[in-house]
Amino acid sequence: MVADLRRLLAPAETTAATFVLALCLFQLNFRWLLSLLFTIEKTSNQAERHAGAPFSKHA
């Protein structure tokens, strides 16, 4: 049964499908991380404006 599956899924096709899937997941994660970073940056900028000084001076 495993040999039949291996014949059905050629190694090149499997590798290509895995690569495409990994690339899609990486792009989704990368976009999510970027949006998270921008959200954190916006929040810290607003907090700095309210405090009147950057966080580094408070720490």
Walk me through the structure.
The protein has 59 residues and is an all-alpha fold. It has a domain at 15-50. It is 88% helix and 0% strand. The protein contains 3 helices and no strands. The longest helix is centred in the middle third of the chain and has 41 residues, at 11-51. The radius of gyration is 23 Å and the shape is rod-shaped.
Q: What distinguishing features does this structure have?
A:
single chain, 59 residues, mainly alpha, rod-shaped
Total number of helices: 3
- The separation of the N and C termini measures 63 Å
What is the succession of H and E elements?
A: HHH
Number of strands: 0
Shape: rod-shaped
The chain-level mean pLDDT equals 74
**Amount of beta strand:** under 5%
The gyration radius over C-alpha positions equals 23 Å
Helix content: over 70%
Helix/strand class: mainly alpha
* Low-confidence sequence ranges: none
Largest sheet, strands/sense/barrel: none
Question: Helices and strands in order, then pairings?
Answer:
Blueprint lengths: L1 H7 L2 H41 L3 H4 L1
Describe the structure in brief.
The chain has helices spanning 2-8, 11-51, 55-58.
